[in-house]
Design a protein that fits this description.
heterodimer, A: alpha+beta, 10 helices
Chain lengths: 362, 230
């Protein structure tokens, strides 16, 4: 391992991993005691155009949609950000659930929302739960558990900003998925050639070395494996050919057979396919801020930010890549009238015998 | 006759109440005792006053139905009392009273129990929120506290550096100068490899030089010699 890279990465971590130009999806839901609720979705873009996104951005006429310009305080950019705002008031809690109860394909985020009201005489309890289903449109071959322990997963999912160690594990998992997939496609290409000089067994036996070769090159920016490198997809697509030729040359040297040189076109197509796959997986990329305003007092939630009757969850596509992201909150509204009625009934029950006893004195 | 006996008989001195013998004895005693005479005189005056009132009669709309009305009212009161009294054994019984008290206590207890359980949940929520981990930025800004943490950090750095290589900017001293200086200062540290696991020698090097190295890197960040460009 190159120690220089470690050193420089320390600086990177010290300066935080916050990304530039990432989309921010803000969802705000207000639950009312009259059974209605309002949802406001805000998405910030660089320009006034709705980019294709895995997040279901409402555009139909049932939503009040508008564009506004807002100053980007986090950026040195002079131009303002375009903010898309969509609002909708739902007549009842079920209507909100139905809004998202639509079957979507795997390239879109599946969201399930449930709001319920439970009357318990003295108190009325309101429960809100929303789950963003795991975003795995590519059906990645390596499960997160291969890199992260259960505790790691739990910590990652419960933390808005996982620490560098956890982020490092996530990146390793992401890269490993890319490499495993690429290696699988490479094996398929070798098998399709059906060339006696190109043995699948030889490739399988040298899997670790080949993946290390791919990984090493990927870290030099020759293959867009994950993360921020994906922003240069276009340029890298053009580099696939030169990369493929160099890669098969290195493979040939490593495995001591020139037969691998014929696989350069296959590696090209794998590279192009990898780029397309990344475009799909990048559709969920961004930061998600989900805010819910509940009636009454918050008594339970899995959010890590509670401000009065408002709870906030913040997560990113990294969380969604690992597993479902469940959010739930429960609040309580006191029924003052029920307490008064109960008090009167109790007093009456205690007073009736005394009253009857007095009347019996007649 | 004594005064005590005379005072008793004075109040019975009406027509048909006393025998002639007793009346004569009373009058004889009064003629000798001035106090009893005064008392007898007062009673006679009072009796005379009330005698005139006895002649007055009530003016009623239906004097003939008075008795019947009174009796009807008495009957209805008796009937109502009888109806109520039918419930009295029920309400007055110890078991029923106890059941009423228990029911009332249960209602009140249910209210408090529900409130206490909710309060407990809110306390648990507060405790959880107070232990929310600091953000990654805050955590990463400090040197590792243990060898395992240093190892984890180095692993994460390895993973994190790849896509960010192009954005790093080395300060006025230049990359080579900085890295050469560090390499010269920590020659053994530059021989450590984490990917193949840590042996005892590498552990010892990390333990002795690792933290100092990370502290120095932090310092370089602070003075702006090395920075990260978005």
């Amino acid at each position: 391992m190159n120690i220089r890279r470690r050193c420089v990465a320390i600086l990177v971590l010290a300066l935080s991993f916050s990304g530039c130009g990432e989309k921010v999806y803000k969802v705000s839901t207000v639950i009312s005691t009259d059974g209605t609720c309002e949802r406001v979705i805000t998405v910030r873009y660089d320009s006034k155009s709705l980019a294709r996104s895995a997040f279901p951005i409402p555009m139909d006429s049932t939503w009040r949609c508008e564009w506004t310009l807002e100053k980007n305080v986090d950026s040195t950019s002079k131009h303002d950000d375009s903010v898309y705002i969509a609002r909708k008031r739902f007549a009842d809690f079920e209507a909100l659930g139905r809004e998202y109860n639509v079957r979507r394909d795997s390239t879109n985020l599946a969201i399930h929302v449930t709001v319920e009201r439970k009357f318990r005489w003295f108190y009325t309890y309101y429960g809100y739960s929303e789950t963003y289903a795991r975003f795995d449109p590519l059906h990645v071959p390596v499960p997160p558990s291969a890199v992260m322990t259960e505790e790691d997963l739990r910590q990652f999912m419960s933390s808005e900003a996982p620490d560098s160690a956890l982020k490092g594990k996530w990146k390793r998992w992401d890269e490993r998925n890319t490499m495993e997939w690429a290696f699988g496609r490479f094996v398929d290409a070798v098998r399709m050639r059906n060339d006696p000089k190109l043995s699948v067994d030889l490739v399988e036996q040298n899997k670790d070395r080949l993946i290390a070769l791919l990984s090493d090159d990927s870290t030099k920016g020759k293959v867009p494996p994950s993360g921020k490198a994906r922003t240069e997809k276009g340029r890298r697509q053009n580099d696939h050919r030169s990369f493929s030729e160099k890669l098969v040359s290195e493979m040939a040297l490593m495995l001591k057979t020139d037969a691998f040189r014929v696989l350069a076109p296959d590696l090209d197509s794998i590279g192009v396919e990898a780029t397309k796959r990344m475009e799909v997986s990048d559709r969920a990329e961004g930061e998600y801020v989900n805010t819910v305003v509940m009636p009454g007092v918050i008594i339970a939630t899995n959010a890590s930010e509670v401000r009065g009757t408002t709870v906030v969850w913040r997560f990113t596509h990294e969380h969604l890549a690992l597993m479902d992201y469940p959010m739930h909150v429960e609040s309580r509204v006191i029924n003052l009238w029920a307490i008064i009625v109960t008090g009167l009934v109790v007093l009456s029950a205690l007073a009736v015998p005394a009253f009857l006893r007095r009347r019996a004195g007649l | 006759m004594r005064c005590v006996r005379a005072r008793q008989l004075i109040h019975l001195n009406r027509e048909g109440e006393l025998s002639d013998a007793l009346r004569n004895d009373l009058l004889r005693h009064a003629s000798r005792c001035p106090e009893c005479a005064a008392e007898l005189s007062l009673i006679k005056k009072t009796e005379k006053t009330f005698s005139s009132l006895r002649g007055a009669e009530p003016c009623l709309a239906n004097p003939l139905g008075l008795t019947a009305a009174i009796m009807n009212r008495v009957d209805s009161d008796v009937e109502r009392a009888r109806r109520l009294s039918a419930f009295i054994p029920l309400f007055m019984s110890f078991r029923v009273q106890r059941a009423i008290h228990v029911a009332c206590m249960m209602v009140v207890a249910a209210f408090f129990l529900e409130t206490i359980m909710d309060a407990r949940r809110m306390t648990q929520l507060d405790e959880r929120l107070s232990h929310v981990r600091p953000t990654a930025t805050a955590k990463d800004a400090r040197p590792p506290r243990s060898l395992s943490e240093a190892k984890e950090m180095l692993h994460s750095l390895e993973a994190g550096i790849g896509p960010l290589d192009g954005n790093l900017r080395i300060g006025p001293f230049g990359q080579a100068t900085v890295m050469d200086r560090l390499r010269a200062k920590y020659p053994e540290l530059f021989t450590v490899t984490v990917d193949d696991g840590l042996d005892d020698r590498e552990r010892a090097i990390l333990a002795t030089q690792g933290r100092a190295f990370l502290n120095e890197m932090e310092l370089l960040v602070r003075i702006g010699e090395i920075s990260h460009e978005h």
